[in-house]
Amino acid sequence: MPSFDVVSELNTVDISNAVDNANRELSTRFDFRGVNASFEYKDETVVMSAEGDFQLKQMQDMLRNACSKRNVDTRAMNVQAIQRSGKTHKQVIDFKQGIDQELGKRMVKLIKEKKLKVQTAIQGDQLRVTGKKRDDLQSVMAMLKAEDLPQPIQFTNFRD
User: Fold this and answer.
1) Looking at the structure, do residues 16 and 89 belong to the same domain, yes or no?
2) CATH value at residue 55
3) Residue 34 sits in which domain range?
4) What is the pLDDT along the chain (160 residues), one digit of tens a residue?
5) What are phi and psi for residue 18, nearest 5 degrees?
6) How many CB atoms lie within 10 A of CB 56?
7) Structurally, how many domains does the chain consist of?
8) Same domain, 77 and 104
9) What angle separates helix 101-113 from helix 134-146, to the nearest 10 degrees?
């Protein structure tokens, strides 16, 4: 019986390279001369530190541009609130990976509304879709690609 998995994974090497590119751009920009600002990447999180809120917003735009150049989908970025401590301001950005329960249920509901002859099962942080016909599975893939989901998805483990 044909099946495939719907997952949400990011390439951490590309994220690391995007952070390095943003750091390089930070060192060459004129408006950041003499300013204590930096990006740090650790455990799928980026910590941005600068001297002001406005600079953090500019740095966030720089990181988004660097990620898009490296083909990292920016919908996976989870920007948290700014933390102020003395002279420095910090902001943490997480990168979401895996399909959580809420998104999985939403995707199952979308598939059931199409009334295709497929079965779906949430398995941890991925979604398994099985059906008798390969065409049904391909139409599910096309429908999920066209849907505006809050994070990027990929299709893996396609079996005939």
Assistant:
1) yes
2) 3.30.70.990
3) 12-95
4) 888 888 888 888 999 999 999 999 998 888 888 888 899 998 889 999 999 889 999 999 999 999 999 998 888 898 999 999 888 999 999 998 888 888 888 888 888 888 888 888 888 888 898 888 888 888 888 888 888 888 888 888 888 7
5) -65, -40
6) 19
7) 2
8) no
9) 120
